[in-house]
Amino acid sequence: MQPQLDQLKKILNEVADLSAATSVLSWDQQTYMPEGGSEDRGDALATLSGLAHTRFTSEEVGKLLDDLSTGIDQLNPDSDEARLIKVTRHNYEKNTRVPSEKVAEFARVTTVAQSVWARARAENNYALFMPHLKKIIELRQEYAGLFTPYDHIYDPLLDDYEPGLKTADVQAIFNVLRPQQVALLQAIHERPQVNDNFLRQKFDEEKQWHFGVDVITRFGYDWKRGRQDRSAHPFTIAFGTGDVRITTRFEPEYGGSALFSTMHECGHALYEQGVNPAYRRTPLSGGASMAIHESQSRLWENLVGRSLPFWKYFYPKFQRTFPEILGNVDLMTFYKGINKVEPSFIRTESDEATYNLHIMLRLELEIALIEGSLDVKDLPEAWNERMHEYLGITPPNNKVGVLQDVHWAGGMFGYFPTYALGNLVSVQLWECIQRDLPNLDDQLARGEFSQLLAWLRKNVHVYGSKYEPQELVQKITGSRINPQPYIRYLQTKYGEIYQL
Amino acid sequence: MQPQLDQLKKILNEVADLSAATSVLSWDQQTYMPEGGSEDRGDALATLSGLAHTRFTSEEVGKLLDDLSTGIDQLNPDSDEARLIKVTRHNYEKNTRVPSEKVAEFARVTTVAQSVWARARAENNYALFMPHLKKIIELRQEYAGLFTPYDHIYDPLLDDYEPGLKTADVQAIFNVLRPQQVALLQAIHERPQVNDNFLRQKFDEEKQWHFGVDVITRFGYDWKRGRQDRSAHPFTIAFGTGDVRITTRFEPEYGGSALFSTMHECGHALYEQGVNPAYRRTPLSGGASMAIHESQSRLWENLVGRSLPFWKYFYPKFQRTFPEILGNVDLMTFYKGINKVEPSFIRTESDEATYNLHIMLRLELEIALIEGSLDVKDLPEAWNERMHEYLGITPPNNKVGVLQDVHWAGGMFGYFPTYALGNLVSVQLWECIQRDLPNLDDQLARGEFSQLLAWLRKNVHVYGSKYEPQELVQKITGSRINPQPYIRYLQTKYGEIYQL
Predict the structure, then answer these.
(1) How many other CB atoms are found less than 10 A from the CB of residue A442?
(2) Scanning B23, B69, B166, B204, which has its CA 20 to 30 A from the CA of B225?
(3) CB spacing of B40 vs A281 below 8 angstroms
(4) Do B309 and B167 reside in the same domain of the chain?
(5) Which catalytic residues are annotated (chains A, B) (predicted)?
(6) Which domain holds residue B237?
(7) Is the same domain home to B167 and B223?
């Protein structure tokens, strides 16, 4: 079967090259491209994606996979080769099941929907967006229908972001998590509140930039295999393990914005930089799933970057960097400030104690939309009711409510839960790390991250997408994705901050 | 024939998209890519080029061109459609005549040769490079042989850079030009020399950058359709007419370096920004040839940027920008300084009066190498003899002699003459512009370039590569490429500066 495997790899290499080229064009589009480049860039991106799709979904690939499926039993099922064939087969099935007219229609409909959504949000006009959302839901239902039999119609959508994960699994996890987070939030609400006014002012951007660079350099971000630029929305993008770039942005009215964003993106980037180089130009490169990726970004952003040990080391430097602002703010006041809990209408501005509630609300609604048990016309009301139930606040308008995120306009049903799952996984891993590195807090308090990074490299990063997310979490932690560690973490952390 | 034409355009659009993507990857490689990205970038570039080549040289394209060749007689031969078919046919012939093993072999041999050349130059070791050069010449001879019958074996090589131009044409032009430039140089040599010591010091880079930006903004460079970055070697690159980027660099010991480089690249970029947008994503986009492109860069760099009227406007600003350096240097001293004539060993450092001599020397040698009348082992001696004959100086070593340029190591036989032809064309155009805009000098002296740019847009830029270079020059100036205007220009300009 070696000749077939070699030929398959050759094609996968070409597809990976096209995908890397697409990523370079996309990075450039979001960082440096002048506005005049839009039209040609759109055409070039469409051509590259089309060629990659055509090449990957060719009959030749199907034939090679069929030939290889007979020989796969002779391989160790845990070998890179067997896994490469398995992952490729999974992607091939998903990509070939959809007629190309449908792929094109979905691209067309979501492109229009995104620009209508932007206007609808600006004008606080849900009715404008509603028919587009309705059409997208129909198309997603139709898409899911191509993958019957399934346990739940949402399964094929979820699988696009979390291979192998089932709707029932996620619901079971969230049903345990939700009441605990709601109860915690109520308990916090009854305690004296934290002051973070000192953060809500202008911090010099140049200094923020350099501070962030210093921090992630200590984390272990390899600047010979990456760089940081500015963009409207921060992101991480990999063109292979040798070139993994991040971006950041500055919010004029919040001092920590660029720093936490930089640490977050660095977490994603360390993952990509750490994938086994032997997987380059194959589907095994890159992260295992969105949730596993998010576990890495949130681990560095929150479990490291919002922890007291981290700031024991970095706060004196941060204070010296912004003496006029922080000269009279002591470490504990600062630490509490950056961890202030406050229900917000906006997901992207929410803290660790409330973030998952935003996600659970969205997941419940999108499952109901896809199931057909919720009509799009009733969506804003359902949104606002749940906001009140989970977070105790009611959006004054749809702009800061149901219209706030681009995901549904982009057709990305199945994406939202990965944010919350990433949070859960980050703490599951963290408990293992604390067991394996008993003096981890001391290391963080000395600004030392090399053992932490080495642990992640060895246990998570190196595997790329060889394993499905549940498999990987099981392999590392001994259990599947599980909300208990995260609940414990929140209770301990906020128990101390709010003296619960 | 419309369906065939539409299908041909569809394929050409895809090929253009792949080529634009290649250019974005290449721009990134030369500006921002971290060193770790090299390996994957090399693979991605090879895949994109390969796909573009395969798509363009497919039998389908050949069939479409054959079908269209029967209908082309019904088209106006000067119509965009007829020209598109003609240009495409020409490119198709050139690309399909070469077996793909030969394309790959040439890429391999020149890749190795370029790295050997870099070492040979560093070590002043021509013998190290010689066998590689010998092999490249053999491959170029073999390549030329695929295009028999020809008038001269160098014709097919020249045609790669200057479609339709013949070796005999270039030789005839240069045979007139050379003795005149040699005589001028001798006359200058006998006069008191110009002092430019004030330029040979460190000028603040930030200030140089901003001055250059101000100048080209006035030229009419459209920043909404372009940007400037830094790179080791300045270049211009277009991803379509809507995104045409330039780069610049700073030499530590010469004040004007970045400014003249910026004006030069801006000249290339104005050309690309001015091509008819209807030609986008087809072979009619981009410049007509290397020489026509160079005519645009040299026009803005030299005929504008080294002229007295230009500096009448800009010198007071330049002086205010660098008051410590230029406070006591008056306009005429400065003007003479930037136009100092001084035979140099190095082509890229040479002035307007000597530059073409460097080119003619190279052209004569490369024709002799390709003809087989000069053996590679005798090349350094032939180089040094001609340097003495034309420029009156003898290189002390091969490092600053025959090993100075990368072109031969890259297999770019046929490229050198385009630099000198560009100079000639720039002045042919300039004479027409002076006729059409009689108060051009006054405009330049007021910092006004809009009429000049409009003239170039209308007469040169808009046509893209619809016409072959000789055709285009004939159409605009009424004669083919001709050395007399350039000779007149040099005699007048340096007659004044050196009081000949």
Answers:
(1) 12
(2) B204
(3) yes
(4) yes
(5) 265
(6) 125-500
(7) yes
A139 and A263 housed in the same domain? yes
Q: Which residues of A are annotated as a binding site for Zn(2+)?
A: 264, 268, 294
Kindly report the nearest CA distance between residue A25 and chain B, in angstroms.
7
| Phi, psi angles (nearest 5°) of residue B229 | -135, 180
**Cα–Cα distances in Å, from B53 out to A170, A256, B48?**
48, 49, 9
Nearest CA-CA partner of A489 in A361, A393, A355, A359: A355
Q: Which of A24, A36, A281 sits opposite B25 (nearest CB)?
A: A24
Cα separation, B500 vs B494, whole angstroms: 7
> ipTM higher than 0.90?
yes
Amino acid at A287: G
- Mutation test of the interface with chain B: which of A27, A213, A243, A275, choosing the one with the most B Cβ atoms within 10 A? A243
Q: Name the H helices within B372-415.
A: 379-391
Are A266 and A315 part of one and the same domain?
Answer: yes
Q: How many domains does chain A have?
A: 2
Q: Are residues B378 and B488 in the same domain?
A: yes
Written as tens digits, the pLDDT of chain B (500 aa) is 899 999 999 999 999 999 999 999 999 999 999 999 999 999 999 999 999 999 999 999 999 999 999 888 889 999 999 999 999 999 999 999 999 889 889 999 999 999 999 999 999 999 999 999 999 999 999 999 999 999 999 999 999 999 999 999 999 999 999 999 999 999 999 999 999 999 999 999 999 999 999 999 999 999 999 999 999 999 999 999 999 999 999 988 887 779 999 999 999 999 999 999 999 999 999 999 999 999 999 999 999 999 999 999 999 999 999 999 999 999 999 999 999 999 999 999 899 999 999 999 999 999 999 999 999 999 999 999 999 999 999 999 999 999 999 999 999 999 999 999 999 999 999 999 999 999 999 999 999 999 999 999 999 999 999 999 999 999 999 999 999 999 999 999 999 999 99
DSSP H or E stretch at residue B6: helix B2-31
CATH code for position A40: 1.20.58
Same domain? For B237 and B344 the reply is yes
Put simply, the answer to whether A39 touches B240 (Cβ < 8 Å) is yes
- C-beta of residue B371 within 8 angstroms of C-beta of residue B363: no
Whether B21 and A25 lie within 8 Å, measured CB to CB: yes
Considering only residues 234 to 253 of chain A, which have any Cβ-Cβ distance to chain B shorter than 8 Å? 239-243
Please judge whether B34 and A281 are an interchain contact, meaning their C-beta atoms are less than 8 angstroms apart: no
Q: In this structure, what token pair is assigned to residue A354?
A: 């409330």
